[in-house]
C-alpha cells in the first residue's frame, strides 16, 4: 500500500513538473481530448434537439454513438428555446438530451446561445442590434448581429449564462463550453450609437490628450484637427469617399477587435467563476481571412484554447485552381486556420467540419469521393485534439435546409459524407498510439510566422496596387512553407524569438513596426536564426506613420541593403526579374535594393528603366542569416525557390511537395494528403511501412505511414 501511495505521489510530482516545464500545454491537450472521448482524436457531431420531434432524440443519439461519434454539441442558437419569455427558463429539453447523450456514453460540448437573442429581447431593446456602415440597423432573424459588448445585451447574456452554468457547470457529461458562434461573422464593424459612445473614451484612454491624438492621427492633414474627443466620429470609408484618415481607420479596427475580445472575456470570466475546473472554455473562430479584426490572440488568457470552423468548399477561399478544386476544397485554408488557431494556446480542434455538400458557398459542388475522409485525416495530422461534424442531421427547414449532415433528410440513412466520417473514425481509432519523439527532420524546418492584425488592416486600408491582397501575400509564403513540409507557428511580437526552437522566421509584409521589434530581429539573427523579410516590412511606426528617415531605413543594416524606391506595374505589362538564369514575371510590387558591402545579390530586375537593380538580397549576420525579398512575383515560383535555398543552406531537411499536397507528422505517423487535381507521389521514406493508402496519392487520397528514419 505504501509503495502504491509513493507511486501516486511521484506520479503527481511528475505531472506537476511536466505542467511547469511544458507550460501546461502538453498536459492540457490530452486532458481536453480525454474529456471528449477515449480516442486519440475524439470526433463529435452537432445536434439541435430543438429542430426535431422529441420522439426522435433517443434514436438519434443512440445512432450517433453507434456510428462512433464520442460527443455531441448542443445549445448554440437556442436562446428562444431556453428562455421563451423574459425570465422564464426552460431546460427540461436540454436536460433530457444531455442524459440521452450520457446514457450512450457520449460527452457534450455546451454552447452559449448568445449569437441569436430571442424576439422578445430585440423587440424590447432594439439598441443591442448592430448598425452597418450604411447606418442600417440589423433585424431580428439573423445571427451574430448583436453588439457584443452592449451593456444592456450583457445584462441578458449574464442571466442566461448564469442559469446554464448553474445547471450544467458540474454535469459529468459536459466536457467544456463554446462561447457564442464564430464571433466575428456578423456585423462586426459596428456604427451604432453605442459604438459612437465608446470610441472617444477608448481613444482618450489610449492617447491621454487630444493633442497626442492629433499628432498620432496626423490631423494637420486636410484640416482634421480636433479640439476635444467629443468631436470624433467613427471613421467610415462609405461617407469619406475621398479617403478616410488611415490612422483613424487603424484605431477603429483595434477598437473593434478590443470590443469583440471584451464580449468574449465577459462570457468566459462569468462561466469560469461558476463551472467546474474540469470543464474548459473555447470559442470557434472562422475564416480569419474575411475579418482579420477578429484577433484570437487578444483572448489568449481568457479561453483555454481557440477552436475554429472549416467549410473547405465554400469557394470563398484560396484553392489550388485545378479542375477538382471545388470538390476537394481548400486544404491550404484548413492548414492555415488550424496552425493559426493552434498558435494561440498551443492546441486546437475543429469545432465545425463540413460532412458533405454545403448550401451557402459560391458553387456548392459535391465533394469528391474521399474528400470528407481526407479532411478528417488532415485534422488528425495537424494534431487536433478533436473534430466535430457540422451537423448530425440535415435540417428540413431554415436557411440551411440543403446543407448536408451526417444523416440524410429521411432522418435515418447515413449520407455519403457521413459514411466517410465513419470510415475515418474507424481508421484513426485503429492506430496504435505510443509516445514518439518528434523526428529531427521536422525540428530542422520548424518555422515561426510573425503575425499582427494591424499589418493586414493597414495594407487593406491602402493596398497601393489594386491587386495587392494582403491575405494572398501571406498565403503565398505560408503555402510555400507547407510545400517544404514545415510546421508553422504564428508568433506575436512579444513572444520569445528562439532560434533553437524556430531556426526560421518568415515575416511577410510586416508594415507596422517599432524599434524594439527590429532589435529583437537582430538578436534572433545574431543568435543563429534565419530571418526572411519581405517588401513592405518596417515601412511605418506603430501609429502607421512613415519613419522620419528614408524608406524602410530602420531595417537597412539588418538586411544589408538600402531600399530607396519601389515600383508597381499594370498586370498586362509585367516586369521581369531574373534569378539563377530564369525569368519571373511580377507586377504588384518591386523594391529597388542597393546592397551594402558584403551583401549577396540573389535576384535582379531584368527590364524597366532600372534594369540590373537588385530585387532579392541575402546576408550572414552573427550566427544567422537575413534574406530580403523585395519583389512579389505573379506565380510565387521565385519565392518558392528562394525559400528552399535559405532552408536548404541552413540545415533544414525539406520536402518538395507539389502544390496543394500536404505532409504532417503526428504521434509517430506521417500523413500525406492530396488536394491537387493530379495523382502525385507521397514523400514516403524508403524503409517506411504504409498503414493506409498507397505511394501514389489520387486526388482526395490519404497515405499514412510509419518510418524508422528520424
Ligand atoms: C458555419 C456556422 C454554423 C452553420 C454552418 C453551416 O459557418 O458556424 O452555425 O451555419 O456554417 O455551414
**Spatial extent as radius of gyration:** 26 Å
Runs with pLDDT <50, length 5+? 1-27
Q: Given the structure, what is the number of helices?
A: 20
Distance between the termini: 42 Å
Which class of secondary structure composition applies to the elements?
alpha/beta
In total, the number of strands is 25
Summarize the structure.
The protein is an alpha/beta fold and 710 residues long.
List its salient traits.
18% strand; 710 residues; eleven-stranded mixed sheet; single chain; binds beta-D-galactopyranose; disordered N terminus; alpha/beta
Structural commentary:
33% of the residues lie in helices and 18% in strands. The strands form four sheets. Strands 9, 10, 11, 12, 13, 14, 15, 16, 17, 18 and 19 form an eleven-stranded mixed sheet that branches. The protein has an eight-stranded parallel beta barrel with strand order 1-2-3-4-5-6-7-8, surrounded by five helices. Strands 20-21-25-23 form a four-stranded antiparallel sheet, with helices on one face. Strand 16 and strand 17 (614-621) form a beta hairpin. It is globular. Residues 1-27 have low confidence and may be disordered. The structure holds beta-D-galactopyranose. Beta-D-galactopyranose (GAL) is lined by residues 181-182, 286, 309, 311, 352, 358, 390, 400, 403.
Strand-helix topology:
Elements: H1 2-21, H2 25-36, E1 43-46, H3 54-66, E2 71-74, H4 79-82, H5 92-103, E3 107-111, H6 119-124, H7 151-168, E4 174-179, H8 193-207, H9 210-216, H10 246-274, E5 280-286, E6 305-310, H11 325-328, H12 331-345, E7 350-353, H13 371-381, E8 387-389, H14 416-429, H15 440-443, E9 447-450, H16 453-461, H17 470-483, E10 488-491, E11 504-507, H18 515-526, E12 530-534, H19 556-559, E13 561-567, E14 575-579, E15 582-595, E16 600-605, E17 614-621, E18 624-629, E19 631-633, H20 637-649, E20 661-666, E21 669-674, E22 680-681, E23 689-692, E24 696-697, E25 702-706
Parallel strand pairs: 1-2, 1-8, 2-3, 3-4, 4-5, 5-6, 6-7, 7-8, 9-10, 9-11, 11-12, 12-18
Antiparallel strand pairs: 13-15, 14-15, 14-16, 15-19, 16-17, 17-18, 20-21, 21-25, 22-24, 23-25
Helix pairs in contact: 3-5, 7-10, 10-16, 13-14
The chain binds beta-D-galactopyranose.
The site of beta-D-galactopyranose has 10 residues, from loops.
Amino acid at each position: 500500500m505504501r509503495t502504491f501511495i509513493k507511486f501516486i505521489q511521484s506520479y503527481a510530482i511528475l505531472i506537476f513538473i511536466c505542467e511547469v516545464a511544458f507550460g501546461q500545454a502538453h498536459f492540457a491537450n490530452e486532458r481536453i481530448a480525454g474529456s471528449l472521448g477515449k480516442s486519440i482524436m475524439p470526433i463529435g457531431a452537432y445536434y439541435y434537439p430543438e429542430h426535431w420531434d422529441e420522439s426522435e432524440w433517443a434514436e438519434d443519439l443512440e445512432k450517433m454513438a453507434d456510428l462512433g461519434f464520442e460527443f455531441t454539441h448542443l445549445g448554440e442558437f437556442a436562446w428562444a428555446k431556453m428562455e421563451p419569455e423574459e425570465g422564464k427558463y426552460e431546460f427540461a429539453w436540454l436536460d433530457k438530451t444531455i442524459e440521452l447523450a450520457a446514457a450512450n456514453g457520449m460527452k457534450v460540448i455546451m454552447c452559449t446561445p448568445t449569437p441569436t437573442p430571442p424576439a422578445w429581447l430585440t423587440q424590447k431593446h432594439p439598441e443591442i442590434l448592430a448598425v452597418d456602415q450604411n447606418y442600417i440597423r440589423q433585424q431580428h432573424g439573423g445571427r451574430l448581429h448583436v453588439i457584443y459588448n452592449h451593456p444592456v445585451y450583457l445584462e441578458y447574456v449574464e442571466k442566461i449564462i448564469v442559469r446554464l452554468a448553474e445547471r450544467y457547470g458540474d454535469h459529468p457529461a459536459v466536457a467544456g463550453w463554446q462561447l457564442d458562434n464564430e464571433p466575428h461573422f456578423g456585423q462586426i464593424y459596428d456604427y451604432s450609437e453605442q459604438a459612437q459612445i465608446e470610441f472617444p473614451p477608448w481613444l482618450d484612454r489610449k492617447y491621454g490628450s487630444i493633442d497626442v491624438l492629433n499628432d498620432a492621427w496626423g490631423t494637420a492633414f486636410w484640416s482634421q484637427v480636433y479640439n476635444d474627443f467629443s468631436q470624433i466620429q467613427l471613421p467610415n470609408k462609405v461617407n469619406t469617399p475621398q479617403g478616410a484618415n488611415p490612422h483613424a481607420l487603424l484605431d477603429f479596427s483595434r477598437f473593434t477587435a478590443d470590443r469583440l475580445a471584451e464580449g468574449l472575456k465577459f462570457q468566459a470570466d462569468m462561466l469560469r467563476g461558476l463551472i467546474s475546473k474540469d470543464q474548459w472554455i473555447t470559442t470557434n473562430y472562422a475564416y480569419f481571412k474575411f475579418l482579420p479584426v477578429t484577433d484570437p490572440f487578444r483572448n489568449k488568457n481568457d479561453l483555454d484554447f481557440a477552436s475554429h470552423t472549416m467549410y473547405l468548399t465554400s469557394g470563398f477561399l484560396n484553392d489550388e485552381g485545378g479542375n477538382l478544386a471545388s470538390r476537394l476544397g481548400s486544404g491550404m485554408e484548413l492548414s492555415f486556420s488550424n496552425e493559426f488557431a493552434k498558435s494561440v494556446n498551443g492546441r486546437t480542434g475543429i469545432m465545425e467540419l463540413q460532412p458533405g455538400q454545403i448550401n451557402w458557398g459560391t458553387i456548392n459542388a459535391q465533394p469528391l469521393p474521399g474528400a470528407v475522409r481526407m479532411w478528417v485525416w488532415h485534422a488528425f495530422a495537424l494534431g487536433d485534439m478533436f473534430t466535430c461534424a457540422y451537423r448530425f442531421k440535415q435540417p428540413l427547414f431554415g436557411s440551411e435546409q440543403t446543407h448536408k449532415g451526417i444523416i440524410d433528410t429521411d432522418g435515418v440513412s447515413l449520407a455519403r459524407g457521413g459514411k466517410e466520417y465513419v470510415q475515418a473514425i474507424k481508421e484513426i481509432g485503429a492506430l496504435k498510439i505510443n509516445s514518439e519523439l518528434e523526428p529531427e527532420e521536422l525540428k530542422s524546418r520548424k518555422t515561426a510566422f510573425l503575425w499582427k492584425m494591424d499589418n493586414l488592416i493597414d495594407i487593406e486600408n491602402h493596398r497601393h496596387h489594386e491587386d495587392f491582397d494582403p491575405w494572398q501575400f501571406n498565403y503565398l509564403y505560408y503555402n510555400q512553407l507547407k510545400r517544404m513540409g514545415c510546421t508553422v507557428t504564428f508568433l506575436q511580437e512579444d513572444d520569445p524569438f528562439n532560434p533553437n526552437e524556430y531556426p526560421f522566421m518568415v515575416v511577410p509584409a510586416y508594415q507596422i513596426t517599432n524599434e524594439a521589434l527590429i532589435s529583437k530581429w537582430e538578436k534572433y539573427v545574431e543568435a543563429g536564426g534565419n530571418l526572411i523579410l519581405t517588401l513592405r516590412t518596417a515601412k511605418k511606426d506603430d501609429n502607421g506613420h512613415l519613419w522620419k528617415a528614408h524608406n524602410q531605413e530602420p531595417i537597412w543594416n539588418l538586411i544589408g541593403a538600402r531600399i530607396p524606391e519601389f515600383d508597381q506595374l499594370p498586370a498586362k505589362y509585367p516586369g521581369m526579374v531574373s534569378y539563377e538564369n530564369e525569368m519571373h514575371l511580377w507586377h504588384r510590387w518591386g523594391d529597388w535594393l542597393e546592397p551594402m558591402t558584403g551583401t549577396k545579390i540573389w535576384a535582379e530586375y531584368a527590364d524597366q528603366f532600372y534594369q540590373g537593380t537588385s530585387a532579392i538580397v541575402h546576408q550572414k549576420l552573427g550566427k544567422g542569416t537575413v534574406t530580403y525579398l523585395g519583389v512579389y512575383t505573379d506565380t510565387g515560383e521565385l519565392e518558392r525557390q528562394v525559400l528552399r535555398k535559405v532552408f536548404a543552406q541552413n540545415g533544414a531537411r525539406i520536402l518538395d511537395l507539389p502544390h496543394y499536397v500536404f505532409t504532417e507528422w503526428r504521434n509517430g505517423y506521417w500523413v500525406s494528403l492530396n488536394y491537387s487535381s493530379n495523382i502525385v507521389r507521397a514523400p514516403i521514406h524508403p524503409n517506411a511501412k504504409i498503414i493506409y493508402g498507397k505511394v501514389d496519392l489520387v486526388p482526395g487520397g490519404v497515405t499514412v505511414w510509419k518510418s524508422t528514419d528520424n
